[in-house]
Structure formats: structure tokens, C-alpha cells
């Protein structure tokens, strides 16, 4: 799902960078108001875990790469997509600079896909389904859908840029990430279950 340099024209990259700057402004305000000495280490641990799972990727025909994301996990744990924006900006920047995974010019687009789209989709899917299906089925479906939607949005961006054919690109990214999303959903449930069992004080819904 990482978009490399050169896959999106610089004019379009600039648009995603503007979105990123605005998102970081509001995320910084959220961090100053909500992060404390107990939750900052949790954010760092989640960032390290996300760095690891995103490093395990596979090439996708007519796409970029397929991997788990973690946007829904961060957004649900903190009940704030702003947390995902902070985590993914840091992780994707490090991956692009030092590991050649994703691009610097495409950083805004990658954060938009995985953190903004993934975080908002995951959080609000969870909120919408929680009262109907219960906590853990909602967490699973939120993580699965966030992964799928983020991948489809990445494919649409590359189609707009003229990098890949729209129909085949979306089909390839969606098919792979529909399966990857199942694994992500299970892992997201496991992480949130573990936090609720051993450190429930760190979960935002237990603090509000």
C-alpha cells in the first residue's frame, strides 16, 4: 500500500501534503490535550508494532504492496484518528528515509490513506457497529474495513495519477487487502483484548 516516489505527480503530492499539514496541526492540539505520561509510551509501542507489521509486505500486480496497516487499532485504542495521524507520520517518514518503503514526495498521500482514511474508517465503523454487534465483532470488522478502504483509496489515487488502470488496480488492491484485512482484524482484536485485560486504564473508552 506504500506509494513510492514517482507514482504520483508532484502537483498532486502537494495537495496531499497540505492535507497532512492541516491534519498534523489538529493532531498536535489533540496530543497536548490528551496524551499524558501513561499514554505516550503506549503510542510509542503501537508505533513500533505498526512499523513491524507494515514491513512485512508482498508485491501486488497492478498495485503497490500488500500489508497490514494498524490505523484502526490506534484510532480505536485512543478513540481518536489524530493518534493514528501522529503515529503514521512518524513511521512512514522513517520507512521512506531509511528503508526505501514508500516515498518522501508521496508521504502526504500515504499518511492520508493509512492514517486519515484508515483511522476515520476504523473508528467510526467501530462506533457505528458497537451497539449492534458488540465490542469485539465491531473491532474486527472496523479493522478489516479500514484496511480494505485504505487500499482502494490508494489505487484510486494512482489511477488519477495515471500510474495504474483504475479497474484492474482497484480489483488487485481490494482482493489482496480483503484477505490481509482478516489477519489485521484478528490481531486488532487480540491487542485490544490484551489491553482491556491487563491495562484497561490505557483504553480511551475506560477513561472518558
UniProtKB/TrEMBL annotation:
The keyword Membrane applies. Pfam families: CbiM. The chain crosses the membrane at residues 7-28, 40-60, 72-98, 104-126, 138-162, 174-195. Keywords: Cell membrane, Membrane, Transmembrane, Transmembrane helix, Transport. It comes from the Archaea. GO terms for biological process: transition metal ion transport. One of its GO terms (cellular component) is plasma membrane. It is a multi-pass membrane protein. NCBIfam families: PRK06265.1-1. PANTHER family: METAL TRANSPORT PROTEIN HI_1621-RELATED. This is Cobalamin biosynthesis protein CbiM.
Amino acid at each position: 500500500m506504500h506509494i513510492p516516489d514517482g507514482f504520483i505527480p508532484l502537483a498532486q503530492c502537494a495537495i496531499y501534503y497540505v492535507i497532512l499539514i492541516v491534519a498534523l496541526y489538529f493532531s498536535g492540539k489533540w496530543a497536548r490535550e490528551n496524551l499524558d505520561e501513561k499514554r505516550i509510551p503506549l503510542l510509542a509501542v503501537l508505533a513500533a508494532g505498526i512499523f513491524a507489521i507494515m514491513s512485512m509486505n508482498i508485491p501486488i500486480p497492478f498495485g503497490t504492496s500488500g500489508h497490514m496497516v494498524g490505523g484502526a487499532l490506534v484510532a480505536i485504542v485512543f478513540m481518536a484518528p489524530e493518534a493514528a495521524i501522529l503515529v503514521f507520520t512518524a513511521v512512514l517518514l522513517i520507512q521512506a528515509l531509511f528503508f526505501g518503503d514508500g516515498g518522501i514526495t508521496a508521504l502526504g498521500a500515504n499518511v492520508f490513506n493509512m492514517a486519515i482514511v484508515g483511522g476515520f474508517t476504523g473508528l467510526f465503523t467501530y462506533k457505528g457497529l458497537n451497539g449492534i454487534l458488540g465490542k469485539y465483532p465491531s473491532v474486527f470488522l472496523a479493522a478489516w474495513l479500514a484496511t480494505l478502504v485504505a487500499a482502494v483509496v490508494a489505487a484510486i489515487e494512482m489511477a488519477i495519477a495515471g500510474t495504474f488502470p483504475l479497474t484492474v488496480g482497484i480489483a488487485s488492491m481490494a482482493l489482496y487487502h480483503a484477505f490481509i484485512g482478516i489477519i489485521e482484524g484478528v490481531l486488532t482484536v487480540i491487542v485490544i483484548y490484551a489491553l482491556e485485560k491487563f491495562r484497561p486504564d490505557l483504553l480511551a473508552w475506560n477513561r472518558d
